[in-house]
Amino acid sequence: MLIANRNPDHGKPLDPVDAKMLGPSAASEVERFLQKREGHKATPLVSLPQLAGALRVSSIHMKDEGHRLGLGSFKALGGAYAVIRLIVEEASKQLGREIDIADFNSPDVRNVAAQFTVACATDGNHGRSVAQGAQLIGARCVIFVHSGVSDERVAAIARYGAQMVRVAGNYDDSVAEAARVAEKNAWVIVSDTSWPGYERIPGLVMQGYTALLSEALKAFPQVPTHVFVQAGVGGIAAAAAAYFSEVLGDKRPYFVVVDPSKAACLFESARAGRPVKVDHGEPTIMAMLECYEPSLVAWRILSRIADAFMTVEDSEAVDIMKRLAYPLSGDPAIVAGESGGVGLAALSQVARLPELRKQIGLNEQSRVFLINTEGATDPVLYEEIVGRSSDEVLAANAKVAA
After folding, report:
1. N or C: which end of the chain has fewer CB within 10 A?
2. DSSP class of residue 88?
3. For residues 203 and 339, is the Cβ–Cβ distance under 8 A?
4. CA distance 219 to 124
5. pLDDT tens track for 314-358
6. Coil, strand or helix: which one is 57?
């Protein structure tokens, strides 16, 4: 299902705060910080020419965040960056001198970090990033996970030294519990969603994501005409919409935000014309997108910049995982987790329906940009769905390339 953005704010400029937080100068700052991160390198922008031909578009490029900083997700850019940025700022205050974020590993900063406890709620990927950032700088970390988060994802977070707390209920319940406990203990919440009075830290998380967008624009042979980006609370979608809007201006691409049909908080917000919380029902396989209330910062941006909102079904997400693992001859294989290929699932849905193609101006000259937001972050589940492990998929890909 696809609806056009009919919000009265659609087409208006970004709020100046959002433009500054997510514009090109902010992305440059994030990239400068990343140069100091061990193991950092730009993730690949993968061309899928055979799939583009099958879907009757000019090109499809997918930014593959399954390779990001050992965490297998774009979230590696957000939580860790926000944790380190906040502690460096606190160190500057306590020490009475400006400390550059590139000096985050200095003894003075680590002494300040040792006084810190950061916390957050997560479905998996954001928590891993926050825990990794805390470990890198020497802060304590407490991560809240709801009952639907798999043991494999919990273990992946705990490897970074985080204390894990299980919360009954869904993601929104874990967010509320994390906020309550953090306030009681004077911990710093590093959330990827925002609520009234709590916007700057989620903004920093989103700012971290701009690095992947800057990398992508540098690698594009031609700028995209259409972008399909999946959304949970809306962070990556809003970061992409804001960044492309600021950098490309009137030449920005047509922007489609994609929700799971079972957790369509942004889609329903677009339909209502205001942020809404949707009811929790049957869980979606797209676990990293299973969010029932949008981030207010993300909604403020997307209500202005997004051109359309749509939903995809669990079966479509599964089909895309397999399609990327077993690509058309001539295209490389991509390891995408349950939430990773959702933008492609949406594109595939639109591409086969003439009325939707016409509605968004998709044609044989269109250049589409997608983000594989995660690799096989739950390896056991990935192999059950795809029929091969992620290593086997990549090995088969390497054999074909050779």
Report:
1. C
2. H
3. no
4. 29
5. 999 999 999 999 999 999 999 999 999 999 999 999 999 999 999
6. coil
SS3 282: coil
pLDDT tens track for 147-162? 889 898 899 999 999 9
- Give the catalytic positions in this structure: 75, 123
Q: Are 265 and 294 in contact (CB under 8 A)?
A: yes
Could you tell me the two tokens for 291?
Answer: 């969010």
User: Angle between the 200-219 and 235-248 helix axes, to the nearest 10 degrees?
Assistant: 60
Instruction: Output phi, psi for 239, to 5 deg.
Output: -60, -45
Tell which residue, 276, 262, 289, has the closest CA to residue 343: 289
Residue 161 to residue 131: CA distance in whole angstroms: 7
- What is the spatial distance between Cα 390 and Cα 372, in angstroms, rounded to a whole number? 14
Measured in whole angstroms, the distance separating CA 275 from the mean position of its chain's CA atoms is 19
Q: CA-to-CA distance for 344 and 242, rounded, in angstroms?
A: 21
Q: Which long-range contacts (CB under 8 A, 24 or more apart) does 100-108 make?
A: 101/29, 101/32, 101/33, 102/32, 102/33, 102/35, 102/36, 104/33, 104/36, 104/136, 104/137, 105/36, 105/136, 105/137
- Beta-carbon neighbour count of residue 285 at 10 Å? 18
The residue whose two tokens read 């470990």 is 135
pLDDT tens sequence across 64-99:
999 999 999 999 999 999 999 999 999 999 999 999
The CB-side HSE value for 74 (13 A sphere, CA atoms) comes to 35
CA atoms within 13 A on the CB side of 308: 24
| Nearest C-alpha neighbor of 13 from the set 360, 300, 254 | 300
- Extract the tokens encoding 240: 């992409």
For 53-70, write each residue's pLDDT tens digit. Answer: 999 999 999 999 999 999
Q: Among 264, 288, 393, which Cα is nearest to 338's?
A: 288
The DSSP code for 255 is: E
pTM of the model: 0.94
Q: Pick from 227, 225, 237: which is nearest to 269 by CA? A: 237
